[in-house]
Amino acid sequence: MNAFTLIASYKRWTMCCLLAVFALIGSANASPSTDLTIQGRVLDASTNEPLIGCTVAVKGTTTGTTTDEDGRYSINIPDENAILVFSFVGYADQEVAAAGKTVLDVTLQPDNLLLSQVVVVGYGSTIERNLTGAVKSIKSEDFNRGIINSPEQLLQGRVAGVNVVSANGEPGGIQNITVRGPGGVRTGSTPLFVLDGFALDNSGTGGATNPLNFLNPQDIESIDVLKDASATAIYGARGANGVILITTKKGKAGFSSLTYGTSFGFSTLARALEVYSADEYRIQVPAVGGVLEDFGASTDWQKEVTRTAQTQNHNLSLSGGAGNLTYYGSFGLQQQEGILKNSSLDQYSGRLNVSQKFWEGKLVVDAIMNVSHTDNLRAPVGSIIGTAISINPTYAAYTEDGEINNFQSTFVNPLTIYELEKDITKINRVIGSISPSLTIVKGLVYKLNYGIDNSTGVRDLQSLASNIPRQDGRLATIITSNNNRLIENYLTYTMDKGALGLTALAGHSYQRIFVQSRSSSINKFPISDLEPIFNPGLGQDLTLANNKPSGFAVVNELQSFFSRVNVDLFDKYLLTATVRADGSSKFGDNNKYGIFPSFSIGWRISDEPFMQSSPFSDLKLRAGWGLTGNQEIPSKITQPLFTTTVSGSTSYPLTETDPFPVGTSFARLANPDIQWEVSSQTDIGLDFALFNGALSGTIDYFNKVTDNILLEIIPADPVQPATTVWGKTWKVWKSLIVDLSLI
After folding, report:
1. What's the rounded Cα separation, in Å, for the pair 498 and 710?
2. Mapping DSSP to helix (H, G, I), strand (E, B) and coil, where does residue 235 land?
3. Range from 160-174, 483-497, 723-737 that averages highest in pLDDT
4. Whole-angstrom Cα distance, residue 183 to residue 674?
5. Contact by Cβ (8 Å): 99, 82
6. Which SS3 state, helix, strand or coil, does residue 648 take?
7. Pairing mode, if any, of strands 663-668 and 677-690?
8. How far apart are CA 272 and CA 270, in angstroms?
9. Which end of the chain has fewer beta carbons closer than 10 Å to its terminal beta carbon, N or C?
10. For 632-657, what is the mean pLDDT?
11. SS3 letters for 37-100?
12. Does residue 65 contact residue 75 with C-beta atoms inside 8 Å?
């Protein structure tokens, strides 16, 4: 049976569920009004200082509020027997009975922040103390500060085993991220990015150089990095390079805020390439027997083509909520100049996160929308830098009249290249998702996650016609679109029976990614003040071979079944077991599906009786093993390839010197036996904390082995069909990582 024969009926069933949820929403009733009011203050038990933003909620209801700048609150309760729950990050929760009181002051005891911290682990969350895998969570208060132009920079240098390196210095340039080393050879080593439960596509995002460019860093609440296989196996085929879970900010009921933030920064060339100055050039050229052409100037060309660039960010956000509705909205503006002239990135982004509760919290609907527009102007780096470091430094950059100096046809002034060349990319991207969750019975929750990611990019590469240097005008246009759709259904069951805690998860996921690109170019524009980008009709040549319109379109589908079980025994002995089966359209019929299991265990040594007098406030030993996959191969590589030639000439009979005739030829054999690239990883870790979490750290040892690496080998003989051979190789990554942090 074809792996995707059930998709059509599954889609219809999913949409029926979605319509049913909306029908339930329409019939839901609002919470009843209340009459009794309790007021009071919430203070820190050790310092007696007010706690600002502490949550005060009526237990068993969705009624709640937060404390003001003096730690004061006021809340309506349904009756005098209600119980109030006071909670604040870094403090132990406290429940207090109203008992007919009208004034109720409370002091909260500081808790071990490390152990109570909520961590997102994929299709759910847990607290730090219950983790059995190698997971690192970074909250907004721990992000890197300063001028942040890309979300990846928030965690640069903050997570052990995670390397964030800028591939280049251009605005909007990609940030290379590797988690515990690259996962393949000539295949993608970028981790999987999951934004609010939506798995992003790292390729084909409307022509963007960075897949996260659309996201405003100020909208991010937390970033969770899943590093070992026991944590990433829940994402199966895409977890071999690690998983980065990004959670955006949400509103809080009973608390409204309007925030404006701005930042300004400057950047310049850190270190120029070492070249001869004009005086050194005058000495060295004759010294090596060259003919010196001295034009009398002393020009630092690297200084001429660069600048002190400015960056500014503006962010406006509004968040809050009342009763059962919470919201968060934001607008961001980023304007970043590059240190090379004529390079910049302007980005406009808007976000709206809304959460609505019904039926006393049994039905929760989360809706997310992110819209962004990006204008990216890229400098012709190769020609600019190459010319700047090789041009004669005695040649003047400008004439006496202040015009760009072009009087010597033997030299091309790099400033002239700025005037003639332009590379502009405009990207519009919309990401939206709706995630209703319904508590069927106590402890059993059904969740539907439906998301869409649409992006369209238009890139124009323009060359103006010119006499110096002599060139025809040209305009090339590339239009790229990406449509990413995700449908997920899963059930989560949670049980807490004193000494035994159990969480079980089972679900199904289907993702379809459609990428399309079209390109065309026009040559021989006349010399004119009107740029080709504004009137392509002035071009006179569409007949050259490299001007023919071209393009491609691919559809990739991924169908998955996944399950996870977490067991907590006596709050000391922990077990996590995960399995995911992925079916990818990238593979042939013989290896369509791959199965990726994992398991991990943990022992909270600090909770044992013999550790009660130890200096450790937390000490946990954990170990895990798992398999993850990699499907980053060309979309149609398992299928036969035919190429069609639409130009050229030949005569019969063919000779060895004749070109191939017009027509269709066979270029690649089918290969349905290509196997999944699989990474096996074993991890042993020790988490510890001293002085009630003031000093905490992690020691991790892992051994990562990648087998059946996907490596394309092209035959040396060009006459033979380009049959692809996939070599069975492997590589091993071993490392001992120590992560220490002071709170």
Report:
1. 48
2. helix
3. 483-497
4. 18
5. no
6. coil
7. unpaired
8. 7
9. N
10. 62
11. EEEEEEEECCCCCECCCCEEEECCCCCEEECCCCCEEEEEECCCCCEEEEECCCECCEEEECCC
12. yes
**What's the one-letter identity of residue 331?**
F
- The reply to whether omega before 50 is within 30° of 0 (cis) is no
CATH number at 115-248: 2.170.130.10
Query: What one-letter code names the amino acid at 735?
Result: S
Domain at 263-742: CATH code = 2.40.170
Each residue's pLDDT tens digit, 272-315? 889 999 999 999 999 998 888 888 899 999 999 999 999 999 99
Separation CA 523–CA 462 (nearest Å): 10
- Secondary structure of residue 514 in the 3-state scheme: strand
Lowest mean pLDDT among 129-143, 157-171, 567-581: 157-171
> What architecture is domain 34-111?
Sandwich (2.60)
**What is the number of other CB atoms lying within 10 angstroms of the CB of residue 458?**
16
* Nearest to 456, CA basis, from 493, 490, 482: 482
Residues of the chain with CATH 2.40.170: 263-742
List the one residue out of 228, 270, 204 whose CA is nearest residue 122: 228
CA-to-CA distance for 123 and 506, rounded, in angstroms? Answer: 10
Q: Which residues contact 270 (CB under 8 A, 6 or more apart)?
A: none
Mean pLDDT of the chain: 80
In the structure, what pLDDT confidence band is assigned to residue 1 with cuts at 50, 70 and 90? very low
Burial of 559 (0-12, 13-18, 19+ CB in 10 A): buried
Q: Which secondary structure element, helix H or strand E, spans residue 116, and what is its range? A: helix 113-116
Q: Evaluate whether 305 touches 340 at the Cβ level (below 8 Å).
A: yes
Question: Highest-confidence range of 1-10, 288-297, 427-436, by mean pLDDT?
Answer: 427-436
In angstroms, the CA 572 to CA 612 distance is: 14
Distance CA 58, CA 37 (A): 12
- Rounded distance, CA 679 to CA 237, Å? 10
The answer to whether 292 and 282 are in contact (CB under 8 A) is yes
| Plot region of 721 (φ>0 → left; ψ -120 to 50 → alpha; else → beta) | beta
Q: List, in sequence order, every residue forming a beta bridge with 347; answer none if it has no partner.
A: 334, 374
Chain-centre distance for alpha carbon 591:
29
Positions of E strands within 338-398: 344-358, 363-378
Question: Which whole-number Å values give the CA distances from 434 to 193, 196, 488, 733, in the listed order?
Answer: 18, 10, 11, 39
Q: Report the 3 state secondary structure along 566-613.
A: EEEECCCEEEEEEEEEEEECCCCHHHCEEEEEEEEEEEEHHHCHHHCC
3-state secondary structure of 161: coil
Cβ partners under 8 Å of residue 20, min gap 6: none
Block residue for tokens 């009763």: 323
How far apart CA 687 and CA 117 sit, in angstroms, is 14
Q: Where in the chain is the domain with CATH 2.60.40.1120?
A: 34-111
Q: Which stretch of DSSP H or E encloses residue 419?
A: helix 414-420
Question: How far does Cα 175 stand from its chain's mean position?
Answer: 10
**Intervals of CATH 2.170.130.10 along the chain:** 115-248
Q: Over 422-462, what HEC string results? A: EEEEEEEEEEEEEEEEEEEECCEEEEEEEEEEEEEEEEEEE
pLDDT, tens digit, 9 for 90 and up, residues 390-415 = 889 999 999 888 888 886 666 788 89
Res 19: pLDDT: 42
The DSSP code for 157 is T
